[in-house]
Amino acid sequence: MSPAEEERSLPLPERWPRASKFALSACAAAVAELVTFPLDLTKTRLQIQGEAAVRRDGAAGGPAVPYRGMLRTAAGIAQEEGVRKLWQGATPAVYRHIVYTGVRMVTYEHLRDSVLGRAEGESFPLWKAVVGGMSAGAIGQFFASPTDLVKVQMQMEGKRKLEGKPLRFRGVHHAFLKILSEGGVRGLWAGWVPNVQRAALVNMGDLTTYDSVKHFLLLNTTLVDNSVTHSVSSACSGLVAAVLGTPADVVKTRIMNQPRDKQGRGLLYKSSMDCLIQTVQGEGFMSLYKGFTPTWMRMAPWSLVFWLTYEQIRRMCGVSSF
């Protein structure tokens, strides 16, 4: 049998390992996103409430919504807008994770195994895991930033309707086209800098912590590669990711949601640094952790659902372990 014939006889996951990991990651991420999306919507609404720039400039029109906390915000959305609105913006969120999670997983494995040189079954220095995780997150988020922009803006549509403002979009594809027509291709990447910063920090907490904790448990305890190990690793990664990523997430959400002029320039913030300064000066340092509770409560189960789904599908399809 020739080498070409031998290669064609191999199972698909062995012939196309990176493509298989991309597809596997995208499927697992879509499941995790749909299960935990109401917490993401609640987080976004909390991060927008009480913006100092809005109170000063009156750009949003009407009084600022009082900070109500996670449970009251979620209950308010369900009562005032309907339970289905808890999943408003879920479609672009799934699109985002197909791109973002697929790219970051494949990139992290490539960096870890081919660039940073981790050998199978050996411990991996933490600094290398951090470099790989942050780089993979930044690259994945840059490509997925347009879908994140649409998701954030669609998540605020229900609030605009309650305030008597006209809705901006008829659906996901209309949102993409409208943003593109108003701001050009660059407009689709509005807020990409804090978005990439957030993704790098979140991945330093998520991928790096999950990978490090999982391999530490396998190498230094009696635990084996099963759901218990995955659950412990997921809980740790969700907490670290929420602590590191929430401030950048607040800045990213506000920049993406701000009104823009005909040239696509923001009317409230000049840059991510300007948004950070205005937020801290106007609302205090802890305002950078608005939405932390739903962020944490979402990241932990999201990570758990993602990794359990990922590992389950991986075994069914015969894909190599992460």
Describe this structure in words.
The protein has 14 helices and no strands. With 322 residues, it is mainly alpha-helical. It has a domain of 98 residues. The model has no long low-confidence stretch (mean pLDDT 81).
Low-confidence segments: none
Distance between the termini: 31 Å
Fraction of residues in helix: over 70%
What is the H-and-E element order?
HHHHHHHHHHHHHH
Overall structural class, as computed from helix and strand content, comes to mainly alpha
Discrete helix count: 14
- Total count of strands: 0
Write down the Rg: 21 Å
Give the rounded overall mean pLDDT: 81
The description of the largest β-sheet is: none
Strand content: under 5%
Shape: globular
Protein name: Mitochondrial uncoupling protein 4
Keywords: Membrane, Mitochondrion, Mitochondrion inner membrane, Repeat, Transmembrane, Transmembrane helix, Transport
GO cellular component, one term: mitochondrial inner membrane
InterPro entries: MCP_dom_sf, MCP_transmembrane, Mito_Metabolite_Transporter
